[in-house]
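ok new one. same drill as before - C-alpha cells go in, u give me an amino acid for every spot. 128 of them this time. try not to just spam alanines like last time pls lmao
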C-alpha cells in the first residue's frame, strides 16, 4: 500500500512540476526507476522570445509577442510587435527590436524588447 501511495504522490507532484521539493519534505527518496517520465507536453520552463521566434516563419518578424505575466495581471491588449531580430548562433539568445503597445496604445516606436530572455513569452496568432 505504501509503495502505491508513494508512486501516486510522485506522479501528482511531477504533473505540477514540484516533485523534488514535495518528496524531500515528506522525507522520501525515490530511485530514478521509480520516477515516471515527464509527459511530453509538460515543460517546467517556458520559452524566451528567441526560442519562440525561431519556430515561426521569417524568424518571427511582424508577429506580436506577449508575456504571460502581463496576461495574468490583466494587461490583455499589451504586446510587442517584433520588427527586427538578431539571433545568436545557438538560436536561443540575441537582440530584438519592435513596437511596444501598452493597453492598446503605442508607447514605444521601434525600441529594444525588454525582458526578451525571460522564459514567459507567448506569441499572438494573427487574426484570421
Amino acid at each position: 500500500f505504501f509503495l502505491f501511495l508513494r508512486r501516486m504522490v510522485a506522479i501528482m507532484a511531477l504533473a505540477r512540476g514540484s516533485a523534488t521539493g514535495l518528496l524531500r519534505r515528506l522525507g522520501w527518496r525515490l530511485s530514478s526507476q521509480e520516477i515516471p517520465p515527464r509527459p511530453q507536453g509538460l515543460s517546467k520552463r517556458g520559452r524566451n522570445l528567441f526560442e519562440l521566434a525561431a519556430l515561426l516563419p521569417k524568424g518571427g518578424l511582424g508577429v506580436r509577442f506577449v508575456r504571460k505575466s502581463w496576461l495574468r495581471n490583466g494587461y490583455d491588449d499589451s504586446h510587442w510587435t517584433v520588427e527586427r531580430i538578431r539571433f545568436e548562433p545557438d538560436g536561443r539568445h540575441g537582440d530584438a527590436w519592435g513596437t511596444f503597445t501598452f493597453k492598446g496604445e503605442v508607447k514605444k516606436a521601434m525600441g529594444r524588447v525588454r525582458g526578451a530572455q525571460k522564459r514567459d513569452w507567448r506569441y499572438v496568432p494573427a487574426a484570421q
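The chain has a mean pLDDT of 78. and btw Helices lie at 2-16, 19-26, 49-55, 68-72.
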